[in-house]
């Protein structure tokens, strides 16, 4: 049996490549969900995601209107465009949900996250951690002779980059708030 020859410029897709070339790409979306601030609402929203196998990458929630008892849930999730549309439609059907906004597609938005990093080290590692913190405009919010607690605010990518640089310098513990996001401009979402 002679070996299979492929002409130059011809397609060399493997018969074992089972990926669907027409499959939709996975996209990351930030959703802002305005809800009544009442018991069980967050559990219902999370239940929608877990019950259908959708992943939540980031979740923040806080009351935004004390007199109206309204809260805002910011969810970062990933899925194909059709899955994202399903998520938005299903969220909109939950009774205490007032509005669902996909900040990713509705126009420019601002996303920020807060991170706290405990870094332990002495000597050169300690000096390097402080130098990098200065470059990233990070605040030192606690200091002992053996460690620092740094506070960083920025995009998730900025916080990820800072974490990677701190790992070899003695990163011990990380706490992150999750993404808070607002649309840009004069419209309210």
TrEMBL record:
Its EC number is 2.2.1.6. It catalyses: 2 pyruvate + H(+) = (2S)-2-acetolactate + CO2. It is an enzyme of class 2 (transferase). This is Acetolactate synthase small subunit. One of its GO terms (molecular function) is acetolactate synthase regulator activity. Pathway: Amino-acid biosynthesis; L-valine biosynthesis; L-valine from pyruvate: step 1/4; Amino-acid biosynthesis; L-isoleucine biosynthesis; L-isoleucine from 2-oxobutanoate: step 1/4. Residues 30-105 form the ACT domain. Keywords: Amino-acid biosynthesis, Branched-chain amino acid biosynthesis, Transferase. InterPro entries: Acetalactate_synth_ssu (IPR004789), Acetolactate_synth/TF_NikR_C (IPR027271), Acetolactate_synth_ssu_C (IPR019455), ACT-like_dom_sf (IPR045865), ACT_dom (IPR002912), AHAS_ACT (IPR039557), AHAS_small-like_ACT (IPR054480). It holds the Pfam family ACT_AHAS_ss. GO terms for biological process: isoleucine biosynthetic process; L-valine biosynthetic process. Transmembrane segments: none annotated. PROSITE patterns: ACT. GO terms for cellular component: cytosol.
């Amino acid at each position: 049996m002679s070996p299979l020859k492929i002409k130059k410029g011809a397609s060399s897709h493997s018969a074992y490549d089972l990926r669907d070339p027409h499959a939709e790409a996975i996209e990351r979306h930030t959703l802002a969900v305005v809800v009544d601030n009442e018991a069980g609402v967050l559990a219902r929203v999370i239940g929608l995601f877990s019950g259908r196998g959708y992943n939540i990458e980031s979740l923040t929630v806080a009351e935004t209107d004390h007199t109206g008892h309204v809260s805002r849930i910011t969810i970062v999730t990933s899925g194909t465009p059709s899955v994202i549309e399903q998520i938005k439609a299903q969220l909109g059907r939950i009774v205490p949900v007032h509005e669902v906004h996909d900040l990713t597609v509705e126009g420019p938005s601002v996303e920020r996250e807060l991170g706290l990093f405990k870094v332990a080290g002495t000597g050169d590692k300690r000096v390097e951690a402080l130098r990098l913190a200065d470059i990233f405009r990070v605040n030192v919010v606690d200091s002992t002779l053996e460690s620092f607690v740094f506070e960083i605010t920025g995009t998730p990518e900025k916080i990820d980059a800072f974490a990677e640089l701190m790992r070899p310098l003695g990163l011990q513990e990380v706490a992150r708030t999750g993404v808070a996001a607002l649309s840009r401009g004069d419209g309210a979402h």
